[in-house]
Amino acid sequence: AQSVSQHNHHVILSEAASLELGCNYSYGGTVNLFWYVQYPGQHLQLLLKYFSGDPLVKGIKGFEAEFIKSKFSFNLRKPSVQWSDTAEYFCAVNAQTGANNLFFGTGTRLTVIP
Amino acid sequence: DTAVSQTPKYLVTQMGNDKSIKCEQNLGHDTMYWYKQDSKKFLKIMFSYNNKELIINETVPNRFSPKSPDKAHLNLHINSLELGDSAVYFCASSSRQVGFSGGYTFGSGTRLTVV
User: Fold this and answer.
1) Are B103 and A34 an interchain contact pair (Cβ–Cβ within 8 Å)?
2) B43–A contact, CB cutoff 8 A
3) Helix and strand totals (H; E) in chain A
4) C-alpha dihedral (A108, A112, B3, B8), degrees to nearest 10
């Protein structure tokens, strides 16, 4: 079965700082990779996804992520964060074949200080 | 025109009660899911349901049962509620027909509090 690790539990940054959130997965087959964001009190929204092609994926709100297959990683980046980026960020993976269940990491809480 | 809608948004109930949470999607997706998000924000899949195929996470107590009257609805019924059931429950849907690449669309969640 797939599993996802997010090593950063809570990240605190000042506005305009650069962001990188780590995500590693374990699965022997071909996967789809996702980053979701959950703003306080809200549901999960898709930031970006990777399923094939260019390993550098650009998402909404200036976020991007890079799939490095050899490292089983899919780190999320943003060059300059804003206060409005304060939220919980979840990395997720599902296998391209099979049940299509989405497995989530434990999440990283991002707090951006104005 | 909400894509995945859940009701109720908040649910407070006493231990031992039986309750249901409803979920409907109007996206034409063929697969629906229930996730539980605990107090530490960890998201754990409970069920997935696709064209009469129910896949259950074996760690989910059998007090939880999904009920799907049609492919646009997947309700969650919980018997004999316990304090540990307090969490936010998210419904989601997806379509396998897009090659598993579409991701999930989530509902807004139901915050269940058992007292």
Assistant:
1) yes
2) yes
3) 0, 12
4) 80
